[in-house]
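During the reporting period the student researcher (J.K.) took over the structure-prediction task from the postdoctoral fellow and processed the backlog of single-chain submissions. One of the processed entries is reproduced below for the supervisory committee.
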Amino acid sequence: MAVLRNLGVTLEMIKWEHSVFALPFALCGAMLAAGGWPSPHHLLWIVAAMISARSAAMAFNRLADISWDAANPRTRSRALPSGTLSAGFVKVFIVVSSLTFIVAASQLNHLALLLSPVALAILFFYSYTKRFTRWSHLALGLALGIAPAAAWIAVRGALDPRILLLTGAVTFWVGGFDVLYSCQDYDYDCEAGLHSIPRFWGIERSLWIARLFHTLMLILLVALIRAFGLGKLADLGVIAVALLLGWEHSLVNSRDLSKLNAAFFTMNGVISIIFACFVAADLLVRS
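J.K. obtained the following structure tokens:
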């Protein structure tokens, strides 16, 4: 069926499997809120909300960027600019994913439902930031960074300021690797007039800015552990994240960006999983 084919192409286009990026940090937020494993009800609807929200945001981003993607040699083969997928189908997918997210939020608590349109607005707004600010990388980071705070609200029905340390950590983590990844588009961004840190500061300085962002991430993770009174297992998680980030940065320099490939991209997903596992282990040992 054409619908199933289009759905498969859409899922490939948005790389739905990369939901793993923010999901482990969202689960960290939920576990910290619950002091261990959240209830199956909370887990089910948090996962549903995360996947549907990311799906809506990624599809919206591809739709908003269709003209830019068509002109960029690196992205012109994507489904929308190549004509493999219609804009109409993607619009329907965005609406369905957004409604699924709102339904998932309604199954959690009243505050989660009230804030669901705000979360979608933040996710969709990122797609336009590349048109007017070089700090769009941090806008993307914030779009993913709200996940742990949202998960806390999903479990507790209220916000604890301490969880915003994890929001900040995720924001700088994503911002850092997005700066690295956008170095590939330096020439195109300059030609098209799109805003990015590499375009304004060059690749060499951008690599240092990415390192600064990731250093700030590690500082915030340490602050998070102290704020919640976590122990040595959580500390080991931060050390593991630091080692993986150090390895990532060792692969890239201003003269060779060839290792900014899918494996490099996936490694960031591994980072979030590893940290979540250490936090979970720390909480479960204490419970």
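The committee noted the following: The two ends are 50 Å apart (CA to CA).
J.K. will present the remaining backlog at the next meeting.
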